[in-house]
């Protein structure tokens, strides 16, 4: 009986094996057969775990074709060169290897500046209640507004280009030009007269009873900057850079005044500075998630070494040289540039438009009003003051 039951049990197992085996081939488990959904292992035996210096890999090892996370294409890894991505365009949705760096070769830009000189006014005349002669026994009494040339906003421009060495280094050259001319006029009527604030006080006589006066004051500067720029850090929504470079600067101030009645009297001054120096600074940009909108800031310091040359001349219609003198000295002139603003850029950053406000401060500068006062006092020691320009700046930039 036992043999018969065993025979029937073995036969039943054989039939079950013949029936279930093909069915298992049609519905394979996750370790064999084609993967019915992403993430399952391919058909065939599982891959062998690699042997490392410490023996077999851990049990959670997954074969080279699959991982717990989607593999990142090599061309998108940080540190890949722009040659792999292409300088001329970004890949797909702009998430290329240059997303964190500069994904272009050459950039050109043009800036519109709307600047005003500060701390640069020159008071040249004021109406007083009676004739003024030398020497002054008491200060004259003012009876009207002060005639003064004060700075106003003037248009200027800046333009340049950038050459990108690699995604994290570049060289930029730019030229800036600013020109301004302030004018003013003032009149009075007898018995009042105009008291000159720019003529040498020792030259006042009974004939200096002027009733009309006018003045003009121009301030111009030219800058050429060449900078090497390197990226400090960057991410999907920010970028910080430092720069070092050289700057050539030229600053010119011209003042002209004319007083008239029966005759005329003129006071003319010229101040010229020419210098070369080094500069260094930081730049930063912060983007929105889409990278289409941004805010930026720049802080750059320059130390210039150069020469100031100044001259003063006072003349009359019947005497071409009443006072004439000149002065020249070397100076170290620090310059501080600060710019803050916002901007927009196209999908891949090919085109950018930014708008901001800038401050440009020159220190240890010989200014027109100080120079005139020193001539009047015959004191030429420790000349130097601060001259500042500020205003709007708008930039259009193409990156190719």
Annotation keywords:
400 residues, Lipocalin, 3-stranded antiparallel β-sheet, 3 helices
Q: Count the helices. How many? A: 3
Question: What value does the average pLDDT take?
Answer: 81
The succession of helices and strands, N to C, reads HEEHEEEEEEEEEEEEHE
- At the first level of CATH, the class is Mainly Beta
Distance between the termini: 93 Å
Number of domains: 1
Shape: elongated
Percent helix: under 10%
Helix-and-strand structural type:
mainly beta
Low-confidence stretches: 1-43, 49-97
Kindly identify the CATH topology.
Lipocalin
Strand order of the largest sheet: 3-6-7-9-10-11-12-13-14-15
Assembly type: single chain
Q: What characterizes the major β-sheet?
A: 10 strands, antiparallel, barrel
What percentage of the residues does DSSP assign to strands (E)? over 45%
Q: How does this structure look, described?
A:
With 400 residues, this protein is mostly beta strands. It is 10% helix and 54% strand. The radius of gyration is 39 Å and the shape is elongated. The termini are far apart.
């Amino acid at each position: 009986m036992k043999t018969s039951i065993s025979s029937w049990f073995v036969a039943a197992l054989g039939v079950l094996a013949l029936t279930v085996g093909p069915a298992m081939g049609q519905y394979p488990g996750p370790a064999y057969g084609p993967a019915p959904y992403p993430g399952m292992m391919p058909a065939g035996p599982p891959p062998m775990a690699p042997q490392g210096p410490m023996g077999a890999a851990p049990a959670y090892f997954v074969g080279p074709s699959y991982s717990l996370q989607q593999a990142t294409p090599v061309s998108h890894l940080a540190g890949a060169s722009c040659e792999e991505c292409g300088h001329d365009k970004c890949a797909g949705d702009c998430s290329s290897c240059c997303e964190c760096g500069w994904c272009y070769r050459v950039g050109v830009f043009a800036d519109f500046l709307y600047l005003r000189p500060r701390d640069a006014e020159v008071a040249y005349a004021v109406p007083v209640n009676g004739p003024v002669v030398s020497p002054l026994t008491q200060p004259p009494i003012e009876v009207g507004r002060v005639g003064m040339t004060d700075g106003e906003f003037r248009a200027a421009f800046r333009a340049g280009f950038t050459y990108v060495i690699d995604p994290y280094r570049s060289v930029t050259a730019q030229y800036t030009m600013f020109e301004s001319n302030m004018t003013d006029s003032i009149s009075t009527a007898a018995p009042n007269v105009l008291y000159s604030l720019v003529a040498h006080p020792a030259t006042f006589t009974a004939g200096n009873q002027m009733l009309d006066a006018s003045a003009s004051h121009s301030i111009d500067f030219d800058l050429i900057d060449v900078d090497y720029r390197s990226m400090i850090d960057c991410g999907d929504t920010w970028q910080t850079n430092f720069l070092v470079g050289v700057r050539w600067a030229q600053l010119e101030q011209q003042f002209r005044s004319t007083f008239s009645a029966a005759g005329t009297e003129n006071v003319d001054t010229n101040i010229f500075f020419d210098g070369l120096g080094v500069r260094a600074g930081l730049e930063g940009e912060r983007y929105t998630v889409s990278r289409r909108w941004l805010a930026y800031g720049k802080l750059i310091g320059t130390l210039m070494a150069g020469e100031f040359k100044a001259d003063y001349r006072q003349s009359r219609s019947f005497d071409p040289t009443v006072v004439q003198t000149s002065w020249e000295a070397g100076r170290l002139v620090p310059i501080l540039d600060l710019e803050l603003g916002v901007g927009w850029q196209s999908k891949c950053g090919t085109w950018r438009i930014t708008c901001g406000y800038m401050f440009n401060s020159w220190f240890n500068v010989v200014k027109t009003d100080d120079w005139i006062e020193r001539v009047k006092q015959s004191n030429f020691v420790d000349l130097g003051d601060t001259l500042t320009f500020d205003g709007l700046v708008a930039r259009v930039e193409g990156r190719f």
